[in-house]
Amino acid sequence: MTTFSVVPGSVVSGILADAHKDVLDIVTRTYLAHEQGQSVNPDSYFLRFPEKPNSRVIALPCYLGGDVDTIGMKWIASFPDNVEQGLPRASATLLLNDYATGYPLACLEAAGISAARTAASAAVAARELTRGRDDLSVAVIGAGVIARTILDYLGAAALPVSDVLVHDLDAASAGHLARHATERLGVPADTGGLAQALERDLVVFATTAATPYVPGDTPLRPGQVLLNISLRDLAPELLLRCNNVVDDVDHCLKAQTSPHLAEQLTGGRDFLTGTLGALLEGRITLDPARPTVFSPFGLGILDLAVGHHVLHAARARGGVVEIPDFIGETERW
C-alpha cells in the first residue's frame, strides 16, 4: 500500500488505441451497475474563474462497486482558448483510491480516458436506439476531439453507417473530420450546413455551445436519433416533442442543459422517458412516432471504470511508473 502508480498519457493512449470493444463493454456494464445502485456518483464540482469566464475545471468524485470496487476522481480542465494556440481544449487526470483503506493507488493521465468514455457512451446509446436499422446516415455537429472519437466508437460498435456529414463553424476542422470519417469508417463523408445535418438519421452534437441554437420548431422525423452529447444545443421546446433518455436524471437536469431548461419550462420531469440503464435492461418503451434525444451529463463512474481497466492493462504491459514509499506514514503509532 505504500507504492503509488503513475500511468503517463502515452501509455494510456497506447492501451485505448486497441481497446474500443473493451471500453464499449465496460461502459455498458457500468450503466447497468449504476441503474442497480452499485455506485456512488455525487454532483460534479465546478471551479470557475472571473477573468476567464469560458474556462473551468471540474471535479467528478465517485465510487463504483462490483468488480471495480474502487474510489476515483476525475479532475478535468476545459480551456477553449487553447485551441487558438494549437493546443487541446481539455486536459485531465484521474486519481484512484483503495476502497478498503482509502489510500491513494494511482494517478492516470485522463484526457484520453474522458474522451473514450464519452464516445463509448454515445455509441452504446446509438446502438441501442437504432437497433434493427440496416443503414444510418450520420451527421456530426462540432468537429473536435470528442467528435472524432465518437466516430471511431460508432465504427467499433458496428453501427451500419452509410455516410457522414460534418458541420462546424470552422471549415478546416470540418474538412479534417470528414476525411477522418472516410478513413476510419470507409464510407463517403462530406461537410455541409446545419439544416442539412439535422435531416440525418443519427445526429451527433459535440460542440462547446453555451446556449441552444437549434430552434424548437426544427422538423424532425419519427425514429430519428439525436445524441445530445454537448447538452446545450437544443431548444427545450424541441425536447418536448421527443422521447428523452438521459444517463442520470438528477445529474442531467441542472447547469442549464437542454433537459434542465425543459424542466424549467414545464415545471416538471414528465417529458423524460427514462435512463439509458433502464433502456439497456428493457424497462422503458420508446414512442415510435417520435424522434429520440439522448442527453448524457457524463458520470464520473465511467471514467473510473475505464481508468481501472487501463491501470491493470498498463501494469500487465510494464507501462506503470511506480513511486515506492509514496505514503509517508504506514503505521498509526
The total beta strand count reads 16
> Which class best fits the helix and strand makeup?
alpha/beta
Could you tell me the strand content as a percent range? 25-35%
Unreliable residue stretches: none
CA-based gyration radius? 20 Å
**Overall helicity:** 25-40%
Annotation field: number of helices: 11
Looking at the structure, what is the overall shape?
A: globular
Q: For the residues shown, what is the average pLDDT?
A: 96
Largest sheet: 8 strands, mixed
Order of helices and strands: EHHEEEEEEHEHEHEHEEHEHHEHEHE
Tell me the span between the first and last alpha carbons: 17 Å
How would you portray this structure in words?
By secondary structure, the protein is an alpha/beta fold. The protein has eleven helices and 16 strands. It has helices spanning 9-17, 20-35, 111-129, 145-156, 171-185, 194-197, 236-239, 249-252, 258-266, 276-280, 300-317; strands spanning 4-7, 39-40, 45-49, 52-64, 70-78, 90-98, 104-109, 136-141, 161-167, 189-191, 202-205, 225-228, 243-246, 274-275, 292-295, 321-323. The strands form two sheets. Strands 1, 2, 3, 4, 5, 6, 7 and 16 form an eight-stranded mixed beta sheet that branches. Strands 10-9-8-11-12-15-13-14 form an eight-stranded parallel beta sheet.
What attributes characterize this protein structure?
333 residues, alpha/beta, eight-stranded parallel sheet, 11 helices, globular
Can you give me a brief rundown of this structure?
This protein is an alpha/beta fold and 333 residues long. It is built from eleven helices and 16 strands.
Secondary structure elements and their pairing?
Blueprint: E1 4-7, H1 9-17, H2 20-35, E2 39-40, E3 45-49, E4 52-64, E5 70-78, E6 90-98, E7 104-109, H3 111-129, E8 136-141, H4 145-156, E9 161-167, H5 171-185, E10 189-191, H6 194-197, E11 202-205, E12 225-228, H7 236-239, E13 243-246, H8 249-252, H9 258-266, E14 274-275, H10 276-280, E15 292-295, H11 300-317, E16 321-323
Parallel strand pairs: 1-7, 8-9, 8-11, 9-10, 11-12, 12-15, 13-14, 13-15
Antiparallel strand pairs: 1-16, 2-4, 3-4, 4-5, 5-6, 6-7
